[in-house]
Amino acid sequence: MKKLVLFLTVVLAFLSCNQPVEKTRGIPAPERVKKEAPVPIDSLENDLKEKGYQVFRHETEDSTYLMQRYYMVFLKAGPNRNQDSTEVAKLQEQHLSHLSRMADEGFVSLVGPLEENDEIRGIAIYNTPTQKEADSLANLDPMVKAGRLKVEVHPWWTSKGGKLD
Q1: Are 66 and 53 in contact (CB under 8 A)?
Q2: What distance in Å separates the CA atoms of residue 50 and residue 85, rounded to the nearest whole number?
Q3: What's the burial of 66, exposed, middle or buried (CB within 10 Å: 0-12/13-18/19+)?
Q4: What confidence tens digit (pLDDT) does each residue in 112-139 have?
Q5: CB burial readout 10-33, b (16+ within 10 A) else e
Q6: Weakest mean pLDDT among 10-14, 26-30, 84-88, 157-161
């Protein structure tokens, strides 16, 4: 089983390296990054509120941060993990396709597996107005539908424009 997962990881990594930057989750070359003018905080705050998102301002002595509620989804080992290797491979492909679609449609901001082989298998940060919507979208994952994974959803706050370096 471990060999199958390793094999699938290597194949997916190889395939993603052969795709144009626009179709991957990789970091584009600097010349491909568009420099856009920052959106004024009032405009961004109003736009998010109109769409139903929960936001608030956090002010320090020298900065103002617009905080937004996201939903951290823990992808946990589910009750049905007895699929054969062919079915697991098929489910994994569908799972990755689902997560890619969620990212492409703007519902997922970050997603990835955990290194350990424990109860929590991965984390996804959903960017939706409500916890109900995040839960519904996460439960559309074929791995969840098959019972191989289950989801646990928690509200999580962070500042708009934050990034991983």
Answers
A1: no
A2: 46
A3: middle
A4: 999 998 999 999 999 999 999 999 999 9
A5: eeeeeeeeeeeeeeeeeeeeeeee
A6: 10-14
10 Å CB burial of residue 70 (0-12, 13-18, 19+) is buried
Phi, then psi, of 68 in degrees rounded to 5:
-130, 145
- pLDDT tens figures, 5-43: 454 454 444 444 444 444 444 555 555 555 566 678 899
Cβ within 8 Å of residue 65, ≥6 positions away:
57, 58, 59, 159, 160
Compute φ and ψ for 56, nearest 5 degrees. -155, 165
Sign of CA dihedral 4, 2, 104, 148: positive
